[in-house]
Write a structure and sequence with these properties.
alpha+beta, Glutathione S-transferase Yfyf (Class Pi), Chain A, domain 2, 9 helices, binds glutathione
């Protein structure tokens, strides 16, 4: 198979990079990782070498360059790992709906509670508009777990792209100490306990760059 390369940002901060990285790991695919440091004087120039949008992550495969985290996850599923979506067509439709909702939305949460895996800022960032985002995310988790989650510990039972899309939110909820009800906590724990998440967090711990985002 032609090698896959995923170009990502700093693991501590790049929530968009985590999503396809997790999908590749869960699919058991070998891939090379190229890491570009965010917020340096030549970040933009370096990203532009790979990414037509000037954003990370980017997947390089064969002659193709695929950008946008969700499009990369879709490419991985279509070409190598169809079980990254649920088997059932209806469940897949909802998994896609919540994945797109995450990809396109929750701007307040993303602005006020940026991913910072190593840090702990309990209670910071919880403004009313962020609370609205949090409540919607928790409702999605509860609905998916209750309706589709019987076959495992993830939103649709087995791991899917929907879980990859929400994994950075789990990290944010830990950093900012967002209180969860028991069902929500069980889901958060399931994501946090994934060996691939542990691997990402361990690498984030090793990174020495510090971006001042607060
Ligand atoms: N919608 C994009 C968002 C990508 C994005 O914003 N990436 C950030 C890193 S997490 C980035 O490339 N920032 C580069 C910069 O701001 O110079 C996706 O889903 O991939």
């Amino acid at each position: 198979m032609t090698p896959l390369t995923l170009v990502i940002g700093n693991k501590n901060y790049s929530s968009w990079s985590l999503r396809p990285w997790l999908a590749l790991k869960q699919a058991g695919l070998d891939f090379q990782e190229v890491r570009i440091l965010l917020d340096t004087p030549d970040t933009h120039q370096q990203i532009r070498q790979y990414s037509p949008s000037g954003r990370l992550p980017v997947l390089l495969h064969d002659h193709l360059t695929v950008w946008e985290s969700l499009a990369i996850c879709e490419y991985i599923a279509e070409n190598f790992a169809p079980d990254l979506w649920p088997e059932d067509v209806g469940a897949t439709a909802i998994a896609r709906s919540v994945s797109h909702e995450m990809h396109a939305g929750f701007i307040n949460l993303r602005m006020q509670m940026p991913m910072d895996c190593r840090a702990r800022y309990p209670g910071e960032g919880i403004k009313p508009e962020v609370r609205t985002d949090i409540e919607r995310i928790k409702a999605i988790w509860r609905h998916c777990r209750k309706t589709f989650g019987q076959g495992g510990t993830f939103l649709f039972g087995q791991f899917s792209i929907a879980d990859a899309m929400f994994a950075p939110v789990v990290s944010r909820f830990i950093t900012y100490d967002v209180k969860l009800d028991p069902d929500e906590q069980d889901y958060s724990d399931a994501i946090w306990a994934m060996p691939a998440m542990e691997e990402w967090m361990a690498s984030a711990d090793q990174e020495s760059e510090y971006l001042h985002r607060h």
